[in-house]
Amino acid sequence: MNDQNQSKPKQRPEETPKTVLGGTSAAKSSSGWKNLFAKRWVSPAIFMAAAAIIVTLMWIYQGADQTSPTTGKAVTTEDSKEGTTETQGKGEDAVEVIAGNESIKWPLADRAALQVELPFYDEKASDEEREAALVQVGETFSAHMGIDFVDPSGKTFDVLAALSGKVTYVKAEPTNGNVIEITHAGGLVTVYQSVTDVAVEVGDDVTQGTVIAKAGRNDLERDLGIHLHYETRSNGKPVNPSSLITE
Predict the structure, then answer these.
(1) What gap in Å lies between CA 148 and CA 195, rounded to an integer?
(2) How far apart are the first and last CA of the chain?
(3) How many helices (H) and strands (E) does the chain have?
(4) Residues sharing a CB contact under 8 Å with residue 211, sequence separation 6 or more, in sequence order
(5) Residue 4: exposed, middle, or buried by beta-carbon count in 10 A (0-12, 13-18, 19+)?
(6) d(CA 228, CA 214)
(7) What does the alpha-carbon distance between residue 200 and residue 178 come to, in Å, rounded to a whole number?
């Protein structure tokens, strides 16, 4: 009996089949994606969603970029220390300047005795007027961002402060000749180029009508002879000086 029992082979328990982790779930997932992409509406929906995201990003980028200042094609014919400037015309772009009880005036003792040799370039003016306000520098035509006054007799004349303010810049520049800048209330700056016999210094407080220099010459507009190049800038942007005169 004992021999028979010992000769019988022991039965091994059946091994439980092994399962590869993730195998079943991966197969189901792969099959699910295939079924999803097989539907006709899926691809167009993905394309439209991607397009919407791209358009949104472009809109956000453009909106942020609008805070950057833009520079017009027209440039000043007389190089200032600030470089290229933008053009501004009359109408809604004009700025009425009043400092205390003062209104800005022409920087001239006798405006009627002088003539405008080169006007301000106004983008809203007629073709003929815009053409008259272009200056040729080499092979390039540039917009004139000020007004040039001359005495018909070719003589010099006094240059006055157009408005009370503080002298913030005085320098002899290579092409523009002597340059004076006076800063006024409200972000207005008046600029006087091509002058001689400069009578002010940086830091001086000047009152309206004070003689600050005399009309002179410069290399950039040597064909004009003795003249005054006069500019007005509001917060750094050129403004037609004529649009500020209230008298």
Answers:
(1) 12
(2) 139
(3) 4, 14
(4) 158, 159, 160, 199
(5) exposed
(6) 8
(7) 12
**Beta strand residue intervals within the chain, DSSP E:** 98-99, 102-103, 115-118, 134-137, 140-143, 147-150, 158-160, 165-173, 177-183, 188-196, 205-206, 211-215, 228-234, 237-239
Least confident of 6-20, 56-70, 188-202, 210-224: 56-70
Beta-bridge mates of residue 193: 179, 229
Q: Which of 103, 211, 238, 92 is nearest to 156 (CA)?
A: 211
Can you give the C-alpha Rg of the chain in angstroms? 39
CA distance 136 to 99: 36
166: region left, alpha or beta (phi > 0 left; psi from -120 to 50 alpha)? beta
Please give the structure tokens belonging to residue 117: 């040799």
- The strand pair at 115-118 and 147-150 is best described as antiparallel
pLDDT at 101: 73
Give how far Cα 6 sits from Cα of 9, 73, 144, 208, 222, Å. Answer: 8, 108, 119, 130, 128
Q: What is the DSSP letter of 186?
A: G
pLDDT in tens, 91-139: 334 454 455 578 999 999 999 999 999 999 999 899 999 999 998 877 8
Tokens at 2, concatenated: 């004992």
CA distance 26 to 19: 13
Confidence of residue 51 (pLDDT cuts 50, 70, 90): low
Give the tokens for residue 218. 């410069």
